[in-house]
Amino acid sequence: QNVDRSLDPDPSACLAPASVTIFPSLFRKPRRIMAAFVSSSISTTSTSLVSSSTSTSCSLFSPAVTAKVLKTPSRSRTHACKRMNMILENFANPFDMIKNKDEAPKKPKKFKVGYAFLAHPEKQTGEDAFYIEANSLGVFDGVGGAAVNGVDPRLFSQNLAVLTLKNVQVNGPKGTVKSLIDAAAENVMIGASTACVVGMEPSGRMNGINLGDSGVRIIRDGKLFWRTLEQQHFFNCPYQLGSDSQDTVAMGENVNQRLQTGDWLIVATDGLFDNLFDKDLVDIVSKFDPKKDPTELAEKLADLALENAKNPNILSPFGVAAQKAGQTHKGGKMDDVTVLACHVTEEEEVPVFSIVSVLE
């Protein structure tokens, strides 16, 4: 069709002066490529997030289009020049468009930790173990079956906790899983133990792993936000690391969550979760004053779990699990109880722990 282009502007009359810099990248549509790489083995583990940005080949300033437009006559050069100058002024400093000068830097997130350990009433020190190293922590439940062969079941779990803490001191919270893998390889004690470890970076990103029937609960805004699941070969036989076990850390459930300020993190052995339903745990945590010492919360949860364990008439989570497995169990389950209660905070003055349970 014949089109009257007599009113089209002539861009040749309003080309940018040589002193003006044009940023071609601003006119290209970016394409983001996000890739997550996670690998784990018996000896090593690594987690990294790789981000790269590439640009499409298409541009608003296509040479073919420009050449065609330059041949077009114009009667409103002044209007076109003003429009081009306005565009160049807007992009004179492109970084002003993406930089928020008023945005305050984010404060690092920390764990405000409390802990409680109650041994089985019939045992002197119990078979559980735990460690806390700043923003990294873990619990370990020694398998009592090892005692049948004359082995002290406390030794394996306690040594595993000590070795993991030492490795975290080198690798940092981000290397918590690697620290456990190396500790399992270094542990020369006879026996077996479940393992549940987590580490939080200053950004709030938490990584970890749970092998066995200990576990993690995240309570956010008064609700259960996330939890781990028990890992068992069969009823009451959890996955475990040990001198005669074929289970490995890589078989555990990954713990990869983004924590927020105000979240509660509960890491505990099965002595808590076998005797306290999640809904009751969430109710207690939600009503707890975060300004108080988290140790009070940990002790409250542990005391209630032990109280339920002694009650022969209560309906317990362990009893429900037994019924699903075709077995009969009435009341709670007597066991060691280890609870780590962590409040995610941005407070500057937070006690930093570096402790590990020890045999007496």
Descriptive report:
- This protein has 360 residues and is an alpha+beta fold.
- 25% of the residues lie in helices and 28% in strands.
- The protein contains eight helices and 16 strands.
- It has helices at 63-70, 77-90, 153-171, 176-186, 270-273, 278-287, 294-310, 317-324, and strands spanning 30-40, 45-55, 110-118, 128-133, 136-142, 192-200, 205-211, 215-220, 223-227, 232-234, 237-238, 241-242, 253-258, 264-268, 337-345, 354-356.
- The strands form four sheets. Strands 4, 5, 6, 7, 12, 13 and 16 form a seven-stranded antiparallel sheet that branches.
- Helix 3 packs across helix 4.
- The longest helix has 19 residues, at 153-171.
- Residues 1-9, 11-75 and 94-99 have low confidence and may be disordered.
Fold blueprint:
Blueprint: E1 30-40, E2 45-55, H1 63-70, H2 77-90, E3 110-118, E4 128-133, E5 136-142, H3 153-171, H4 176-186, E6 192-200, E7 205-211, E8 215-220, E9 223-227, E10 232-234, E11 237-238, E12 241-242, E13 253-258, E14 264-268, H5 270-273, H6 278-287, H7 294-310, H8 317-324, E15 337-345, E16 354-356
Antiparallel strand pairs: 1-2, 3-15, 4-5, 4-16, 5-6, 6-7, 6-12, 7-13, 8-9, 8-14, 10-11, 14-15
Helix pairs in contact: 3-4
